[in-house]
């Protein structure tokens, strides 16, 4: 199986360095997006079971390299890094265009992506990329099971009531969740091997997208303002014995009309 | 005339979801403010019936009686709404931030090439366009953003607005599904119900959540008891979900759910940033923790230092006594 994993490098939540008020400084300190690591792990297991090759695809600035190297150390065979200064400030629409364009230049049976990213939190780019490529879209995956002989993929999709077992022919696009299982740690051997693995850098021209369709100048969303949330008043501290403490909680609930 | 404002709703058990009612209420409010027309769109096998109910929230409702058969409904909604949008040229599409809603929004973005404001926790009308409020960077900032075009998609979180019935209900128009090029086939083979999954944690007015401090799966009994007494549901941290003490459907925070209940009781939860991002905008936060230095004290309203097993049952009893007395 040929698998492409969409891997985004994101700032560490709560540790973002902000510039100009609200823009996040992506020049350092990026890590692999949490949900992307779950699908990467699932993809590595699929390759171990069924053979084939796993390639990561990243759109992002130079510091994304650290997350890419980690993915290579975990077991990805090689990486594609779409990197171009004009991409800075791209919105979800442009991101979907660029990732779809890059995937058109790659070969795969399966594209895997995290259900959402911790920085953007939109959770829509996967569906947009799949739709642009005409791929079946299987989302919120808790389990992925291919049938290579039938060239189909089966996914447990989290539903409101439990989960749905859904199925589609490959090639297909699967967006996955934490339920796929803990990602492995890179082994020392993996880290050594990663050094000789190929990281192809593609420019926007390489993937064939016009510069006028991407970046902050093309973004169809604009931030008007960014302010810290109103501070909470600070906690009232209760240190009494359990009987009194419980009474204090009930009184507090009553004072706020919550009981 | 300025383009319409559409609320794209979902149907569950033949009725519009609560989120669909919130979107309809929001669209009606923004339309009233802007002099535009609000319209709700429902797509599904029960669309006409559900539409009669949704019309109570104000907007006229377009009911597309499309049977998804064994296809996931998101693709069917996206195909039909894209066809309707091309035909009728609305300005703004409001979609819910549910799993299906996000799938619909992503597909619509690709089908229409429209921009999208995601994860809105509130929407107002500003300078002839919707302006979305969003909590970003682990809650350190609240941003206000607008669409830089006269059309676009806005994805709205559950409980961002309160669903209200309008003084005058809207009218329902049932229409036949448009003939569309279907999105690639995905087939539902089986639908599995799991009792533990059927928790609508994002819509709950009260959440009582447990972390490592509950000690094990059986420790959740006292958490569950208080949740029931308060008319709420049980939440959890990632650590205890990973440990298998409770199901993923209960997980709050990064890679889990983001919630905004009126009351959040955090029992044995330290308040690490990964959890905080999912619950910090809750109305009232009460923390019960043995560690006086737990970070949750920095954003709780009431911080009770003590043993949750000693305290929670007494709070449950106290609330019951208060109701009974």
Question: What tags apply to this protein structure?
Answer:
heterodimer, A: 259 residues, alpha/beta, Rossmann fold, 9-stranded mixed β-sheet, two-stranded antiparallel sheet, 7 helices, 29% helix, B: 325 residues, 2 domains, 7-stranded parallel β-sheet, 5-stranded parallel β-sheet, 8 helices
Secondary structure layout plus pairing:
The complex is a heterodimer of chains A (259) and B (325).
Chain A: E1 2-6, E2 9-11, E3 18-19, E4 23-24, E5 30-32, H1 34-50, E6 53-59, H2 65-74, E7 78-82, H3 92-104, E8 110-114, H4 125-133, E9 137-147, E10 152-158, E11 162-169, E12 172-176, H5 188-194, E13 199-202, H6 204-207, E14 221-227, E15 236-238, H7 242-255
Parallel strand pairs in A: 1-6, 1-8, 6-7, 7-13, 8-12, 9-12
Antiparallel strand pairs in A: 2-5, 3-4, 9-10, 10-11
Chain B: E1 5-8, E2 11-12, E3 15-16, H1 18-34, E4 38-43, H2 47-54, E5 60-64, H3 73-88, E6 92-96, H4 99-112, E7 116-120, E8 122-126, E9 129-136, E10 141-147, E11 152-156, E12 172-175, E13 187-193, E14 206-210, H5 220-229, E15 233-236, H6 238-242, E16 263-267, H7 273-279, E17 284-289, E18 302-305, H8 308-324
Parallel strand pairs in B: 1-4, 1-6, 4-5, 5-12, 6-11, 7-11, 14-15, 14-16, 16-17, 17-18
Antiparallel strand pairs in B: 2-3, 8-9, 9-10
Helix pairs in contact in B: 3-4, 5-8
């Amino acid at each position: 199986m040929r698998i492409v994993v969409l891997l985004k490098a994101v700032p560490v939540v709560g540790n973002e360095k902000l510039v100009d008020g609200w823009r996040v400084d992506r020049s350092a300190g990026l890590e692999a997006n949490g949900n992307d690591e779950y699908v990467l792990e699932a993809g590595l297991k699929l390759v171990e079971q069924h053979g084939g090759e796993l390639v990561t695809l990243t759109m992002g600035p130079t510091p994304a390299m650290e997350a890419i190297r980690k993915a290579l150390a975990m077991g990805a065979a090689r990486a594609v890094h779409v990197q171009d200064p004009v991409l800075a400030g791209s919105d979800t629409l442009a991101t979907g265009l660029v990732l779809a364009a890059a995937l058109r230049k790659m070969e795969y049976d399966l594209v895997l992506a995290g259900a959402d990213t911790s920085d953007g939190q939109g959770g829509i780019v996967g569906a947009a990329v799949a739709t642009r490529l005409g791929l079946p879209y299987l989302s919120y995956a808790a389990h992925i099971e291919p049938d290579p002989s039938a060239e189909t993929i089966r996914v447990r999709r989290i539903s409101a009531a439990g989960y749905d077992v859904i199925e589609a022919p490959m090639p297909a696009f699967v967006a996955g969740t934490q339920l796929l299982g803990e990602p492995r740690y890179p082994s020392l051997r993996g880290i050594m091997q990663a050094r000789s693995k190929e990281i192809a850098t593609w420019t926007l021209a390489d993937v064939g997208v016009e510069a006028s369709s991407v970046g902050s100048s093309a973004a169809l969303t604009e931030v008007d303002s960014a302010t810290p949330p109103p501070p909470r008043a600070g906690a009232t501290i209760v240190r009494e014995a359990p009987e009194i403490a419980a009474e204090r909680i009930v009184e507090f609930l009553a004072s706020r009309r919550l009981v | 005339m300025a383009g319409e404002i559409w609320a794209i709703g979902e149907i569950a058990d033949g009725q519009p979801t609560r989120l669909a009612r919130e979107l309809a209420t929001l669209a009606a409010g923004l339309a009233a403010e802007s002099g535009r027309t609000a319209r709700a769109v429902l797509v599904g096998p029960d669309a006409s019936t559900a539409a009669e109910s949704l019309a109570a929230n104000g907007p006229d409702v377009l009911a597309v009686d499309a049977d998804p058969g064994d296809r996931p409904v998101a693709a069917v909604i996206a195909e039909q709404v894209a066809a309707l949008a091309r035909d009728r040229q609305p300005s703004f599409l409001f979609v819910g931030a549910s799993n299906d809603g996000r799938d619909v929004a992503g597909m619509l973005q690709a089908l229409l090439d429209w921009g999208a404001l995601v994860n809105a926790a509130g929407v107002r009308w500003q300078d002839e366009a919707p302006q979305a409020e969003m909590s970003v960077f682990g809650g350190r900032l609240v941003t206000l953003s607008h669409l830089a075009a006269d059309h676009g998609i806005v994805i709205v979180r559950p409980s961002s607005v309160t669903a209200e019935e309008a003084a005058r209900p809207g009218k329902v128009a049932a229409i036949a599904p448009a003939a569309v090029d279907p999105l690639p086939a995905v087939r539902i083979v089986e639908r599995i119900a799991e009792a533990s999954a059927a928790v609508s944690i994002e819509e709950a007015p009260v959440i009582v959540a447990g972390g490592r401090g509950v000690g094990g799966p059986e420790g959740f009994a006292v958490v569950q008891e208080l949740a029931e007494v308060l008319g709420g549901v049980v939440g959890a941290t990632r650590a205890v979900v990973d440990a298998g003490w409770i199901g993923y459907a209960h997980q709050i925070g990064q890679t889990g759910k983001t919630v905004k209940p009126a009351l959040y009781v955090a029992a044995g939860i330290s308040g690490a940033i990964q959890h905080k991002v999912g619950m910090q905008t809750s109305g009232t936060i009460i923390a019960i923790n043995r560690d006086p230095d737990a970070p949750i004290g920095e954003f709780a309203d009431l911080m009770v230092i003590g043993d949750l097993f000693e305290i929670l049952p007494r709070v449950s009893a106290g609330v019951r006594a208060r109701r009974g007395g």
